[in-house]
Amino acid sequence: MEKITGKNNDLVKNIKKLLTSSKERKAQGLFVLEGARLVFDVLNSFYEVKYFVATQQIMDKYCEQCGKMIAKAEKSFLVSSDIADKIGETQNSQGVFAVCKIKADDKAANAKALNAQIALDNIQDPSNLGAIVRTAEALGVDRVIVGGGCDIYNPKALRASMGSMLRVNLLRCENLESFLKEQSNQGVRIYGTSPDKNAEPITDIDFSQKSMCIIGNEANGISQQIKECCDKLVTIKMLGNAESLNASVAAAITMWEMLR
Fold this sequence. Notes:
single chain, elongated
């Protein structure tokens, strides 16, 4: 492993940029994992690792996993705890990072192979995004489509997903409207979730057909153009006085109903 001794090292500064800037991640085609759980989760994912960076304390504590990361990464670097603290975005850095290559999206996936999908229309909160993807993996959703909104490689979203972002079938979609029309043409039933009292209760929907449910933006819900792509609007019936549910909670209930 090559040793980095200076806080002004170009790689140190670049990792910091990748952690803090969606623009940099997109431009370089790279993103950063921070912390032992996420970094070592990448060993069981389809992501390629460009750089592995760790302190000696981490190397000693996770000897076997670090050996595998060194073998997987193109280059590996040893840093001091002070440098790790400079790089890290978390309050107490664990001193381990992986710079990974952003994968190309597989937009050609055939809907015939996918029974239950969930699409997100402009979800902004990275914690919501991560929680939704984590629940999708837990419940066995076939694919999560992210239509605009939060960068899926945002460090907060990655942490909130607890590694699920690295394993689920995840598709970034710049034009969700066009994508939904393509899916509909392949026989997928499209359902938009809404607090509208005129929407059909989600408990009354037959999800035995190939289906996709859409979760809307935290403040505004599903956009009008996306609603027009839906076969039906569905709602989660609420007994209390709350006007709506948090996006990640609504997504969890929706996915449970789809798959039960």
